[in-house]
Amino acid sequence: MKFPLSFRSAAALCVAIISLSSASNLHAEDGYIRVRHEAATQAGELSLDATYTLWIPEGLGEKKLRGVIVHQHGCGEGASKGGQTGAYDLHWQALARKWDFALLAPVYHQKEKENCRNWCDPRNGSDAAFLKALETLAQRSGHPELQTVPWCLWGHSGGGFWASIMLALHPERIAAIWFRSGTALSAWEKGEIAKPEFPPASNGVPVMFNPGRKEKDDKRFGRAWDGSLAHWRALRALGAPAGFAPDPHTSHECGDSRYLAIPFFDACLGLRLAAPNATNSALKAVDLKKGVFAPLEGNTFSKTVAEPAEASWLPNETFAKAWSEYITDGAVIDATPPPAPFGLSARFSEGRWLLDWQADADLQSGLAGFVIEKDGLEIARLPEKQENRYGRPIFQGMSYHDTPEVPKDPKVAAAWLPAADDPFQNKLPAMHFEVPVDAQSAPVWSVRAVNTVGLKSLPAFPKTLGAKAFVACDYAGGKVAKVNADGTVAWSVPAKNPQDCWVQPDGGVLYCEAGGAVRLDAKQQRIWEYKAAPGVECHACQLLENGRVLIAEGGPKRLIEVAPDGTVALEIPLPTTITNAHNQIRGARKLANGHYVAALKGDSKVVEIDATGKVVREVSVVGDPHEVVPLKDGNWLITCGDGHRVVEVDPKGSLVWELNENDMPDFPLRLIAGVQRLQNGNTVLCNYLGHGHIGMQPQFVEVTRDKKIVWRFDDHRHFKTINQIHVMEEPAEVAPVR
């Protein structure tokens, strides 16, 4: 199927889909959708195909996309071919996944001698085609918000030309722009194209100009340098948030620019995006006073400068430090290890062990490769030899155009190219390794990721046979979900910052979230709900035998028992002096004796109180307690949050068992939130990975009394920060409530 697109008149636009890959409904599934167009001038003298490949993060559930990162290639046949892999880039996907964005790579299948202005000036029709492609992709993906969400525009050469005019056409939609060696300013100043009319809103969009220093005074690419500098000067004269970041090592190739471009977008999205569930989702205005400024020459920066129009604007000091490193030697320092691989499987077949796994790229430094370990010792690396003629070695390869590069070895490329019309259908080089052995043994296999600065992740281990079904709260992921014993997600429901969950004997689930508590039946239909007052945080819940639901409320400083009709039947004041609602309370349970036990987060203690709120027992902890589980023998199992510790104390307050931050090799405790004691005596603890650790290691583990891990769970595609679970296969050892 073909359809016309007039580069001379957008009114002649007509669009249809002629190819589609991946599922048509991508909720809870990651996938790639490809929409292909044929464009022609009204006179018919030019025909040009355009393909739009969209990647959507896995694990969104019912959440909406918050925006689109557009990775736009430059002019020429080589750039067109190089741009075809843009949506498959793991590093750019890591940025998109963090912000619940899609990643879009438009490709204009331009022959070398065809006029690039036919598409890189969006007024000739590519703007209309881009908008129509978003409309079609919105319909096919099940994400209608794609038609209205904001964009981050990355453009190389002609792609920067395109982005600079899109700034005039759609400033209200653009969160930020990265211009890699390209802008249209020189063309409109010389009268080669009509000068765009820039509305005032265009001066509020953060932009960064990133030419290569070797372009300066170059006969072929000098215009890219001069145009970038002139455009930066023009925007700064208008007070626009514009920065200048010359690459010291490159000419027109993209080199290692992504290691600054990704932090730039990351910083700008933090400034401009509304809250995920905000009623008004419009982009926030940039407050230039919250940024920093840097002179055109040198690598210093400061909060104030004498001549702001002569200085670059940088979004914050963290980014400014990276900018200073980059313009000095082309590298950005990174001291944080990458996230660990996940989903590792190891099976023996025909005289060899077959290892397969998945991995996400490190947001700061991407993914360079993997270390294969046997019984804790390195035996191999994948790839065996790392090369990249354009910058740091990277697992997917790196093209001139900042895109993954298909291997040139025909034997290797054959595994990547199953279909002639889709040069990257398999998306990734295989995360697979084979180890020949003389006899079948049972070693402990593990795999570590390595980022492009050489830092290794924690090891990933194969899924264990001890895995069980459970229901989990994903605080940052905004959902409650059931996971089967084989690791598949059975169902998920949206929930705002869920904190506590229980599986009922009939298969239903009780959970609490920021603004209340909910009961679901076995079919995930709501059968009961309690809504707290505005601003109240609900951090714990428990179904009592009398049919009431115990709820802990931060703000009012109270525990309440809510009757089946939704009314508050009993109120118990909490003995806390903390005024901040978020820090008053976490876990709470009712005891068999009619008392209540509560983890007073900000007070660093756990208390047992009677129905009047009188303290009858108190245990101080190091850290901020997040959960307390009363055990059958009267002991309390307590997680210490950012104290990086789990303790079990007897009724006298004496320590009978503890698990400290570094007690388990290769598994440091982070913020320990939810906890459960199983019938086998093991402890399941939730390793909340917020505060800078999302994706870095397993989200929870089952630990024996002697501190051995027997089950670890790490599904970073579907879950961000699991803070509470209820393992279903065997009941928890919890004192009964009368």
List keywords for this structure.
14% helix; 738 residues; alpha+beta; Rossmann fold; eight-stranded mixed beta sheet; Immunoglobulin-like; disordered N terminus; 3 domains; Neuraminidase
Please explain how this structure is put together:
- The protein is an alpha+beta fold.
- The protein folds into 3 domains: 10-276, Alpha/Beta hydrolase fold, catalytic domain (Rossmann fold, 3-Layer(aba) Sandwich); 342-450, Immunoglobulin-like, CATH 2.60.40; 470-727, Neuraminidase (6 Propeller), CATH 2.120.10.30.
- It is built from 10 helices and 40 strands.
- It has an 8-stranded mixed beta sheet with strand order 1-2-4-3-5-6-7-8, with helices on both faces. Strands 19-18-17-40 form a 4-stranded antiparallel beta sheet, with no helix packed on it. The protein has a 4-stranded antiparallel beta sheet with strand order 20-21-22-23, with no helix packed on it.
- α8 runs antiparallel to α9 (317-329).
- It is globular and about 85 Å long.
- The termini are far apart.
